[in-house]
Amino acid sequence: MIKSELVDRLFKSNPRLYREDVEKVVNAILYEIGSALQRGDRVEIRGFGAFTTRMRKPRTARNPRTGSLVQVKSKRLPHFKMGRHIRQRLNGGEGAEPLTALDND
């Protein structure tokens, strides 16, 4: 699912809202998650999962075109850990929540 499909689904399930408002809310949520990760904060959405960043150590890599060695600097990468409820829904385990109308399109 891409962002425009998410906006469409949310708009269809909330007909009293304007599409532009739904898009602004989705953009605001994604922006805030990105900003929090940039600051080094952890973002947790209960039942869904948690977003964090992890440090990747500096390393020596190889340029695939020339085969020469290249030094790669350390960097932060985003990491997502799935929440228990969504894992249960995906795997159909005990305690899994039933699918809602929003999930059935």
Summarize the biggest pleated sheet: 3 strands, antiparallel
Q: How many alpha or pi helices?
A: 3
CATH top level of the largest domain is Few Secondary Structures
Residues in β-strands, percent? 25-35%
Identify the overall geometry.
Answer: extended
* Average pLDDT rating: 90
> Could you spell the SSE succession in H and E letters?
HHEEEEEH
CATH architecture of the largest domain: Irregular
What is the count of structural domains?
A: 2
- Rounded to the nearest angstrom, the radius of gyration is 19 Å
Please state how the strands of the largest beta sheet are arranged side by side.
1-2-5
Distance between the termini: 12 Å
Structural class: alpha+beta
Task: Describe this structure in a few short sentences.
With 105 residues, this protein is of the alpha+beta class.
Give an overview of the whole structure.
With 105 residues, the chain is an alpha+beta fold. 38% of the residues lie in helices and 26% in strands. The chain is extended and about 60 Å long. The mean pLDDT is 90.
